[in-house]
Design brief:
This protein has 96 residues and is mainly alpha-helical. The protein has a domain at 32-96. It is built from four helices and no strands. The protein has helices spanning 4-9, 23-26, 34-65, 74-95.
Length: 96
C-alpha cells in the first residue's frame, strides 16, 4: 500500500490566500474600547467583593450558631465553596 495518492491530493494554500485566523482582524467588527473593558472589569470586581463580604458575614453568623463539637453543616460548606469561587474570580480579574 502506498500513501502517495493521499499526499498528492493535499494542495498547499498559496501565500496570497486569505488567512482564516486573521479574518476577524480584517472584518468590520467594532473594536472593544480598552477603557470600557477595564471599567466593566472593575464593576464586576466590586460586585464580587460585595457578594464575598455578604457571604463571609453569613458564614460568620452560621459558625456562631453552630456547636463547636458538631461537624460543619452543609450550608456552611456550600458558603465556603462559594466564597472560594468568588475569591478566585476576583483574583483572576485583578490580575487582568
Amino acid at each position: 500500500m502506498s500513501h502517495a495518492p493521499a499526499l498528492a491530493a493535499q494542495v498547499p494554500i498559496p501565500p496570497s490566500a486569505p488567512n482564516p485566523i486573521r479574518k476577524d482582524e480584517e472584518s468590520n467588527a467594532p473594536k472593544l474600547d480598552p477603557k470600557i473593558a477595564l471599567e466593566a472589569n472593575e464593576k464586576d470586581i466590586k460586585k464580587n467583593v460585595e457578594r464575598l463580604y455578604q457571604l463571609a458575614g453569613e458564614l460568620k453568623t452560621e459558625v456562631e450558631k453552630t456547636d463547636s463539637m458538631q461537624v460543619l453543616s452543609l450550608t456552611m460548606l456550600k458558603k465556603t465553596e462559594e466564597i472560594e469561587k468568588l475569591a478566585k474570580e476576583i483574583r483572576s480579574r485583578a490580575k487582568g
